[in-house]
C-alpha cells in the first residue's frame, strides 16, 4: 500500500461514499460477531483456550471488516496552503516605440544618462542643469523608446526583473495589437525586440489579465509603454474600474518625453491667450492680405505654437516670390506645463512690395520659422514653412459705384472704399442731388449729363470714362439710365478684363434688365447677358403683408473655404459665422446678423461659381436647387459678381467694419484685380485643408484658354511629384487625370491618393501659357502609430492613479524606477489540495483473503474442518 495509507489517516477524516445505512452495517457486524462467538463456543472441547480465542478473533475481524466495507468508506484530507500571485509585466512593442525623441530638456537628458547606466539611479538629478560635455559624449544619439526599455530592463543597478521576481513569479508579455507570452528563464529575446506592431491595444492587453479566475489573478501589472492606445476595444476608464474591482494595481513606466519638440505655424491675427508681440498688439484684428500694392506697407500677421522646448530662439523669415522681404528674431521661454500643452505666439511682419514683386512669376509669400534650442553641445533646430498666394499690383484700384438711391449698403460701402488708400473710388447716385453730384470727388460729375433719366454721353465719351476704371459697381440702376449702346460698352469693358459687381435692388435692377421669353442670348439686354444668373422680373410690394423671414446665407459646399467668404482666418470661427442649410438663424452672437430680403433667380449659368445660398428657399423647378444669393463667373477676361441681397450693413452690428469691411474688400479685389494683374488662366483649389494619410482628396482646376474661354476638353493630365520620396521610385512621379465637372464649363476635378506622407507638388500645364502648381503635405492621422507625438503622460498618470482608487500614484519616470519593485506588494493566493483514499480497494480485498487464509490454516492445524 502507498504512503498515504500510512500518513493520511493520522489527520484525515472518515467519510462514507455508499448508500448502505450506518445503523444496519453496525447491526449486521454485531450480529455476525455474536454468531462467530457462539460458533467457537460450541467447537470441539479438545481446542485449547488460546487457539479458540485466536480463531474467533480472526473470524470476528473478518466479519466486522466486511460490515465496514459495506459502507464504502474513504479517508479524506484537505491541505490548506498559500502561494505567491504572479507579477505580470507588459512591454509595448508597437511602432510608436520606434520613435526617436529629441531631448532638449535637461531632465530628459539626465533620464537618458540614467537609463544607460551613466548615473546613480537612486541619486536625484543635479540642479546645475544639463549634463556636462564629457557625460553627453557618452550618451547615445536619440535612441528609440524601445531601446530605452531594453536599457532599463537590463540595467545592472536597477535589476528590475530580478527584484520583481522576488515579489512573485514573473509573467512577461509583449503587446501591440495582440499579447504574446515571453520566456522568463531565457532572456535573449529581450535584446532582439523590434517595435513592429501596427497598433497598440494597451487597455485590452491588461484587461485580458484581469479576466482570469480569482486564484490566478496577478498581484500587480507592470506596464512599460508610451501610452498611445489606438487599437483597444476598451478604454483606460474601464481598465481602471476593473483593476479596482479585482484589486490588481497598475505600475506604469512612461517611456519617452512628455512633450515632443515641434513648431506649428499659421497665417492670421492673434487669438485670446496668445503671447502677442508689440507690433502684433498694435495691429490687433488685422487680416492676412491676399492682394498687395506696390509701395504700400504690407503687414502679415502670423501665429506659431511651440511645444517641448523650455527656452530657445525663434527666427521668422518672410519671402515674397524669391526675394526675402522681412526677418525677425525672438527669444522664447516656456513653463513645464506650456511645454506639454504648447504656447502660441503672435507676431507681425512688415514689408513694402516693389514693382519687381508685381512682375515676379511666383506670386506668393513664404514664411519660414526656425526654432533653435539646447546648447552648443546638444543643439536642436526645428523648421516649418508656410505658403500663401498673394498678388502684388502696381497701382491703385479704380472703382466706380452707381446706385439709384443712397441705400444703407451704398452708404457704408462708400465710407469703406474712401478709407482704403489702395482704392481710388468715385460714386454717383441717379436720384441724388445733382448739385452735390457736380461738386467733384468723390462724386463723378460727368454722369450728371442726363436727359429724361438717360445718360447723355456718346459712345466715345462713355468708353473713355468707363475704361479708366477697373471695377464697376452697379446697384439698383434703372434700365433706361444706360442706352443700349452704353450697356454694350459695359459688356465690352468686362470682356476686356474689367470687373463688375451688381448689388440687387427692389425696384429697378436686375428686374428691369430681365427680358422673359427671349431665347437668343444676343437679343437679351447686355447687362442681363453678363450676369452669372438667369432671372425673371419680380416686383416687390411697398410693404410685405407677411412677417419677414430672417435668414443667414449659407456657403455652398464646393467653395466653403473660398477667400471671398473668409471673414475670419480661423476656419471653425469662420464657419460659425454663416448659416446652415435647412435651419433658421441661431440665437448666437457669434453668427452674422440675419437678412430679410433677397432677389430670387431662376437658375445659375454654366461655369458660374455659387458662393452663398439661401438656407431654405430653392430655385423654381426643374432646377430646384438651393436659391443662389452670391454668384460669380468670368465673362471674357473680366469677373462678374452677382450679389442678390443688400443687407450686409446689418453685419456691422456691434462689430463695425470687421465683417462688412472684409467682405466688401475681398469682393472688390476679387472682381477688380484681374484688370490690373490679369486673370490666371489655370487655377488649382484643394477641397481639403489638410491631407491625411489613408484618405483621398479632391482638387478642383479652373482652366481657361489663352483667349479666356473655358476649357472644353473632357480630360486634362497633371503630374504629382513626391519631393520626400526616392527619385528612383517609379511612384515619385505619377500622372493624375482631371475630369470635366458636368454642367460647369472650364471646371475640372481630380482625386488625389494620400497614400504616402511627405511633401508633394501637383503640376498642371494645360498648354494655355499659364501652368499652375499646388504644393501640399500629407501627414499621419491623429494617434497614428508613426505620427510624431509625446508620451501620453497625463493619461498614464490618471490610469495608474485610478487603478488603485487614488491610494498612491503608481506612475514612474526613469528617476523613480529604483523604487518600482519595492512598491509592488506581494500577494498570497489560497491553495487548497484535497486528498482522498478509498478503503474498498484491492488492498482490503487482500486483507480479507489473508484473514480467511489465516483462519483456514489455523483450523487445519488444529484438526478442524
Task: Please explain how this structure is put together.
The chain has 865 residues and is of the alpha/beta class. The protein folds into five domains: 4-81 and 835-861, no CATH class; 86-257 and 792-826, von Willebrand factor, type A domain (Rossmann fold, 3-Layer(aba) Sandwich); 262-392, Immunoglobulin-like (Sandwich); 397-677, Rossmann fold (3-Layer(aba) Sandwich), CATH 3.40.50.880; 682-778, Sandwich (Immunoglobulin-like). Helix content is 25%, strand content 28%. The protein is elongated. Residues 1-10 have low confidence and may be disordered.
For the structure shown, list the relevant keywords.
865 residues; alpha/beta; Immunoglobulin-like; 7-stranded antiparallel beta sheet; 38 strands; disordered N terminus
Quick structural overview:
The chain is α/β, with parallel strands linked by helices. The protein is 25% helix and 28% strand.
- Low-confidence stretches at least 5 residues in length (pLDDT < 50)? 1-10
- Tell me what the CATH architecture of the largest domain is: 3-Layer(aba) Sandwich
CATH superfamily of the largest domain: Class I glutamine amidotransferase (GATase) domain
The helix-and-strand class reads alpha/beta
- Rg is 45 Å
CATH class of the largest domain: Alpha Beta
CA distance, first residue to last residue: 33 Å
Please state roughly what percent of the residues sit in beta strands, choosing from under 5%, 5-15%, 15-25%, 25-35%, 35-45% or over 45%.
25-35%
Please state the oligomeric state of the protein chains shown: single chain
Major sheet: size, sense and barrel closure? 8 strands, mixed
Helix content: 10-25%
Question: Looking at the structure, what is the overall shape?
Answer: elongated
Number of domains: 5
Amino acid at each position: 500500500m502507498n504512503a498515504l495509507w500510512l500518513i493520511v489517516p493520522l489527520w484525515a477524516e472518515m467519510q462514507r461514499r455508499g448508500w448502505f445505512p450506518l445503523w444496519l452495517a453496525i447491526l449486521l457486524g454485531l450480529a455476525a460477531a455474536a454468531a462467530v462467538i457462539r460458533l467457537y463456543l460450541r467447537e470441539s472441547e479438545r481446542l485449547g483456550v488460546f487457539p479458540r480465542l485466536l480463531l474467533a478473533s480472526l473470524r470476528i475481524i473478518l466479519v466486522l471488516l466486511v460490515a465496514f466495507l459495506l459502507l464504502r468508506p474513504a479517508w479524506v484530507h484537505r491541505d490548506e496552503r498559500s502561494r505567491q500571485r504572479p507579477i505580470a509585466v507588459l512591454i509595448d512593442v508597437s511602432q510608436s516605440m520606434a520613435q526617436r525623441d529629441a531631448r532638449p530638456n535637461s531632465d530628459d537628458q539626465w533620464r537618458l544618462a540614467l537609463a544607460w547606466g551613466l548615473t546613480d539611479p537612486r541619486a536625484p538629478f543635479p540642479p546645475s542643469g544639463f549634463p556636462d560635455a564629457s557625460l553627453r559624449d557618452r550618451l547615445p544619439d536619440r535612441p528609440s523608446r524601445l531601446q530605452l526599455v531594453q536599457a532599463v530592463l537590463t540595467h545592472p543597478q536597477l535589476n528590475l526583473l530580478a527584484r520583481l521576481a522576488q515579489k512573485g513569479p514573473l509573467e512577461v508579455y509583449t503587446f501591440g495589437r495582440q499579447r504574446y507570452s515571453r520566456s522568463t528563464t531565457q532572456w535573449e529575446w529581450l535584446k532582439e525586440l523590434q517595435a513592429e506592431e501596427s497598433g497598440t491595444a494597451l487597455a485590452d492587453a491588461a484587461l485580458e489579465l484581469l479576466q482570469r479566475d480569482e486564484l490566478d489573478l496577478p498581484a500587480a501589472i507592470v506596464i512599460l509603454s508610451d501610452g498611445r492606445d489606438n487599437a483597444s476595444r476598451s478604454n483606460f476608464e474601464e481598465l481602471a474600474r476593473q483593476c479596482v474591482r479585482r484589486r490588481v494595481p497598475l505600475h506604469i513606466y512612461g517611456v519617452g518625453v512628455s512633450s515632443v519638440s515641434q513648431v506649428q505655424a499659421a497665417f492670421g491675427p492673434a487669438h485670446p491667450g496668445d503671447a502677442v508681440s508689440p507690433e502684433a498688439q498694435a495691429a490687433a484684428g488685422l487680416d492676412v492680405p491676399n492682394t498687395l500694392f506696390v509701395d504700400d506697407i504690407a503687414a502679415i500677421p502670423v501665429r506659431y505654437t511651440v511645444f517641448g522646448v523650455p527656452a530657445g530662439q525663434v527666427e521668422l523669415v518672410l519671402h515674397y516670390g524669391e526675394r526675402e522681404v522681412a526677418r525677425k528674431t525672438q527669444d522664447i521661454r516656456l513653463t513645464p506645463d506650456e511645454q506639454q500643452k504648447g504656447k502660441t505666439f503672435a507676431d507681425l511682419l512688415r514689408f513694402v512690395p516693389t514693382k519687381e514683386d508685381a512682375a515676379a512669376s511666383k506670386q506668393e509669400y513664404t514664411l519660414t520659422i526656425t526654432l533653435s534650442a539646447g546648447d552648443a553641445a546638444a543643439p536642436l533646430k526645428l523648421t516649418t514653412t508656410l505658403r500663401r498666394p498673394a498678388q502684388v499690383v502696381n497701382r491703385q484700384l479704380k472703382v466706380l459705384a452707381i446706385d439709384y438711391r443712397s441705400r444703407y449698403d451704398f452708404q457704408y460701402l462708400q465710407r469703406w472704399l474712401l478709407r482704403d488708400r489702395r482704392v481710388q473710388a468715385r460714386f454717383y447716385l441717379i436720384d441724388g442731388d445733382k448739385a452735390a453730384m457736380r461738386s467733384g470727388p468723390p462724386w463723378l460729375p460727368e454722369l450728371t449729363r442726363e436727359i429724361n433719366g438717360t445718360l447723355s454721353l456718346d459712345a466715345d465719351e462713355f468708353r473713355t470714362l468707363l475704361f479708366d476704371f477697373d471695377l464697376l459697381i452697379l446697384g439698383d440702376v434703372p434700365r433706361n439710365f444706360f442706352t443700349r449702346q452704353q450697356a454694350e460698352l459695359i459688356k465690352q469693358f468686362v470682356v476686356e478684363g474689367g470687373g463688375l459687381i451688381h448689388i440687387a435692388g427692389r425696384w429697378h435692377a436686375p428686374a428691369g434688365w430681365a427680358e422673359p421669353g427671349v431665347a437668343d442670348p444676343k437679343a437679351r439686354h447686355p447687362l442681363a447677358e453678363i450676369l452669372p444668373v438667369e432671372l425673371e422680373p419680380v416686383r416687390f410690394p411697398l410693404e410685405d403683408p407677411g412677417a419677414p423671414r430672417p435668414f443667414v446665407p449659407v456657403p455652398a459646399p464646393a467653395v466653403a473655404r473660398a477667400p471671398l467668404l473668409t471673414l475670419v482666418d480661423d476656419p471653425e470661427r469662420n464657419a460659425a459665422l454663416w448659416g446652415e442649410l435647412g435651419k433658421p438663424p441661431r440665437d448666437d452672437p457669434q453668427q452674422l446678423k440675419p437678412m430679410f430680403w433677397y432677389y430670387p433667380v431662376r437658375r445659375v449659368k454654366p461655369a458660374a461659381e455659387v458662393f452663398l445660398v439661401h438656407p431654405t428657399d430653392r430655385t423654381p423647378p426643374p432646377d430646384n436647387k438651393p436659391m443662389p444669393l452670391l454668384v460669380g463667373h468670368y465673362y471674357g477676361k473680366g469677373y462678374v459678381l452677382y450679389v442678390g441681397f443688400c443687407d450686409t450693413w446689418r453685419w456691422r452690428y456691434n462689430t463695425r467694419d470687421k465683417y462688412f469691411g472684409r467682405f466688401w474688400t475681398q469682393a472688390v479685389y476679387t472682381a477688380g484685380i484681374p484688370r490690373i494683374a490679369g486673370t490666371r488662366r489655370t487655377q488649382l483649389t484643394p477641397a481639403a485643408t489638410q491631407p491625411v494619410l489613408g484618405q483621398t482628396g479632391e482638387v478642383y482646376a479652373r482652366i481657361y484658354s489663352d483667349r479666356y474661354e473655358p476649357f472644353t476638353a473632357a480630360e486634362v493630365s497633371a503630374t504629382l511629384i513626391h519631393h520626400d520620396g526616392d527619385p528612383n521610385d517609379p511612384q515619385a512621379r505619377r500622372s493624375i487625370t482631371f475630369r470635366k465637372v458636368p454642367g460647369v464649363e472650364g471646371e475640372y476635378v481630380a482625386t488625389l491618393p494620400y497614400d504616402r506622407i511627405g511633401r508633394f507638388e501637383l503640376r498642371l500645364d494645360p498648354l494655355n501659357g499659364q501652368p499652375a502648381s499646388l504644393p501640399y503635405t500629407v501627414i499621419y492621422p491623429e494617434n497614428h502609430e508613426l505620427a510624431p507625438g509625446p508620451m501620453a503622460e497625463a493619461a498614464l498618470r490618471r490610469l495608474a492613479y485610478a487603478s488603485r482608487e487614488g491610494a498612491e500614484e503608481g506612475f514612474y519616470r526613469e528617476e523613480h524606477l529604483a523604487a518600482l519593485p519595492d512598491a509592488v506588494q506581494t500577494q498570497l493566493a489560497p491553495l487548497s489540495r484535497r486528498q482522498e483514499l478509498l478503503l474498498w480497494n484491492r488492498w482490503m480485498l487482500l486483507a480479507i483473503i489473508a484473514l480467511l487464509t489465516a483462519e483456514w490454516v489455523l483450523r487445519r492445524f488444529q484438526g478442524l474442518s
